[in-house]
Amino acid sequence: MSKRPAPLAGIRVLDLTRVLAGPWCTQNLADLGAEVIKIERPGTGDDTRGWGPPYMKDAQGHETTEAAYYVSANRNKKSVALDIASSRGADVVRELARQCDVFVENFKVGGLRKYGLDYESIKAVNPAIIYCSITGFGQTGPYASRPGYDFMIQAMGGLMSITGERDDLPGGGPQKAGVAVADLMTGMYSTVAILAALYERRNSGLGQHIDMALLDCQVAMLANQNMNYMASGESPRRAGNAHQNLVPYQVFAAADGHLIVAVGNDSQFRAYCSVIGRPELAEDARFQKNSGRVVNREALIPILAEAMLTGKRDDWLARLEAAGVPAGPINTIEQVYQDPQVLARGLRLEVPHTSAGTLPTVASPLRLSDSPVQYRRAAPLLGEHTAEVLQQYLNLSEEEIKEFMK
């Protein structure tokens, strides 16, 4: 049981987002206790409802209509089916916005203005609203009107230039990440911005417009690679599974599989050399310091690779762990959920779902000791809460709601 109310209890969010970046943001807010009202197109809803297979299964193992993609980003929300292109639907959204703290949307720049749902229109009815716009390129600049999708943003924002095998090796060339990291990081940055704006509002009493762009977030998340470029004037290149600034920090083949070795400092390197039976390498002037190992990578790595082939993966992992050298297996996602640490942390949960009974979900990584994340419901059915929300916030009668929903 929670020791205190959820951190965002009492905060109401109007969610006009779809696909991933926006829903990822609003799912964070919902997990932290905000009431999130998701507005969806009647009949089809969020695009990702149809992004299957796979579809989630009910207790009898039968497929539901809920695509796994949609379920991954819409936990703890309420779904209201409204046609915002109709004057009546737009009126309802404005009335709901009047009673909300946060408005999140990911339409094209200016796309909501024709419905009277842009920031200036919503601010006119609720000056305290925190209005977050998520787009590919932001509200300004020569690309502002372009649509932006994660894949193209990973390319334009530099991530694919540093992801994948080296160009001079088999399989080399640009490679995207295995999940939509530009979308996900934009969702995370948007969450931070909204929380900051809510905190600031406690002093000013006023809302503000948050302008979030996938490209901005993608460039920002390049982190040390940005600074590698700025310090050297040279663009970092793809390094496969190696690290540009640490050696050895990569995949090694053992006699029966592969493992990661992630040496982060010189003392760990000395311990690693002892484990693999090559202690003299740690005394070699070329390799004693990480800076030397980075410069002399091509001389060192073949020696280490040869040594690693003499042992079995799990034997290496046990010995490296005992010596305090960071190392780990390369798990499939199935193996992830069998890992003792993942089991101990409870990363797979079952949450209530209206038609399936329960659905699996992945626990939020946000762990608060006294006001923890709450798992109230799985992703909602399309329009599941339309009547409830219209009655509660617009005080419509049952007859009015039936007429409205035709």
TrEMBL record:
Pfam families per UniProt: CoA_transf_3
Protein name: CaiB/BaiF CoA-transferase family protein
InterPro entries given in the database record: CoA-transferase_III_domain, CoA-Trfase_fam_III, CoA-Trfase_III_dom3_sf, CoA-Trfase_III_dom_1_sf
Keywords: Transferase
